Amino acid sequence: MMPSALIFDVDGTLADTEELHRQAFNGAFARHGFNWRWNRDDYRRLLKITGGKERIGHFIRSLRLDSRRESQCLAQVAVIHQTKTALYTHNAASGRLQLRSGVARLIRDATLQGVRLALATTTTAANVQALLTSTLGEVALRQFDVVAAGDMVANKKPAPDAYLHVLERLQLAPEHCVAFEDSRNGLCAATAAGIPTVVTPCQWTADEDFSTAWLILPELGDPGRPLPKAAATRLRQRWLCLDDLREAREHAA
Question: 145 catalytic, yes or no?
């Protein structure tokens, strides 16, 4: 049977957004007078910490500052993150991002076939809106029945809270859905909620452990941009389609 809903992560899954996020963090640090700068290796390590404010706080604590200075820096986390969000949304809205292969097609096909759509992400709602409107148009968010973003739940991934929130709002059992993730933290969150998960690692997460995923693909693929044959052995064609996802529900059951 066809899944009743597809639940997507955002950063790294819908689009490879992390470089733009990294640049926005560095821009925010500079604007607030800090000489911190995260290079790509730094950021790859910091991505293990989900949530922008949490990531900044973790970084500050790692500096081993004296207690007074650490408290001063931690007190500015919220305003730094606010600036970072403004920088990111401005750049995302300017068209600097593209959806990963197959994402727009699968969203379109799901909409046409009555499969519900939802988002479960740790990024802010403003970031979600900037990405979707710049890539899918102003009506993009209306295609999603539920958006669990930012601080809407108590615990961020790898905790399952975001997915449990989506399931509750959709009023669906987890085995009736399929999740899409790009990171181990996201995979752990989805599987802890009982949802079979398709993982499409991005450049920042390619070395992570995805052994509990239902399916691992380099991307979702498109007729004009098919997957390598070796990566599509479980698919009907060289791109993931809704019919392929029938098996995910059977796997969960």
Answer: no
